[in-house]
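Why does residue order matter? Because the sequence determines the fold. Keep that principle in mind as you read this record.
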Amino acid sequence: MTALADFDLDPGALQPKWGWFVALGVVLLALGALALVDTVSVTLFSVIFIGAALLVGGVFQIIHAFANRDWGSFLFALLCGALYIVGGLLIMDEPVRGSLVITILLAIALAVSGGTRMVMAVRHRNNRGWWLILLAGLASILIALILLLSLPWSSLWLLGTVIAIELIFHGVGWIFFGFALRQMR
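Structure:
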């Protein structure tokens, strides 16, 4: 048996529970709307959460290094754990600067992925729709430039806005899924 056999894949069995999906969607939608009201607070809270996650990950990395001391990468694992801890503490101590660093890293990732997509599009320009990939790459580079040119202000609202939008879309998705279950026969 596979792990998938443990899941109930019959949507009909979920039909009586459609209200739970709608309720989950409404809660997520409300949280997303609330997050949109104060994106700066959500950004700072998420940066502190990321710092705490790095701190905990670093502690476990160091524990793992000592538990496997005979491993050839002991010093490397110890150093990585220490860097996680230091990075986490720095981010938690200065969440505004942490959001700035995260925004810069995101802008760099967008620019690199956008440039890569543009190169792929040009290399495959004999295929239909290649220009859509080119356009998507250009959009990523444009977003990266907007983020970088609007620093430091973009770092204060970016993460909170992305989280709020994610919550809203996730909530709407669950609401529609719940109502679709309700209409099943």
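The mean pLDDT is 90.
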